[in-house]
Each structure stands twice: as structure tokens, then as C-alpha cells.
Design a protein that fits this description.
about 100 residues; alpha+beta; two-stranded antiparallel ribbon; Alpha-Beta Plaits
């Protein structure tokens, strides 16, 4: 059985995710590749004690990047946008970031 910690790998802190968090009450996470929307919803509700309104999941593909003479690839994975229900407060871990 998967644990909540193995489903939610880490929060994504970017300019876009910060704007979504402040304006639309949406949290962004990097999630396990085999996790589905129901598992992601339960993991967020258990770890942060909040009610989830909706979950959107997308797959990020790897891209070829060139730095100087070396060529490499960016990592691929899955990203989840978790919208909290109206009136829910953001978890303290996301305050001031």
C-alpha cells in the first residue's frame, strides 16, 4: 500500500505556482508516476488536514538541454494541481514562501 509521503514527492515552488496559490487557492506538487487523482486527493487531505475541491494531473516530458559542449536531459515526471475548497486555509508550510 502506498503512503501519503510516497505519493506526494515534493511541493513545486515557482512563480506560477506561487501566483496560483495566492489567487486561486491551488497547491502544486510533484507526484509519483503511478499515483491517480483519488490517491493524490487522500494524501493531501491526510498530510495537511484540508478539504480538496479538485485535482488536475499532468505529465511533464523530458527535454534536451545543452550547456556549453555537454548535452543532457531534464527529468520527466508528473505534476498535480490541487485546488482547496473555499474557506480552507493553506497549510503553514506554504506561508511566507
Amino acid at each position: 500500500m502506498k503512503t501519503a509521503q510516497s505519493i506526494l514527492l515534493k511541493p513545486i515552488i515557482t512563480e506560477k505556482s506561487t501566483t496560483l496559490r495566492e489567487t486561486q487557492n491551488v497547491l502544486t506538487f510533484k507526484v509519483a508516476g503511478d499515483a491517480n487523482k483519488i490517491e493524490i486527493r487522500r494524501a493531501v487531505e491526510v498530510l495537511f488536514s484540508v478539504k480538496v475541491d479538485s485535482v488536475r494531473v499532468l505529465k511533464t516530458t523530458s527535454k534536451i538541454k545543452k550547456v556549453g559542449r555537454s548535452i543532457g536531459r531534464t527529468s520527466e515526471g508528473r505534476k498535480a494541481y490541487v485546488k482547496l475548497k473555499a474557506g480552507e486555509k493553506l497549510p503553514p508550510i506554504f506561508e511566507g514562501v
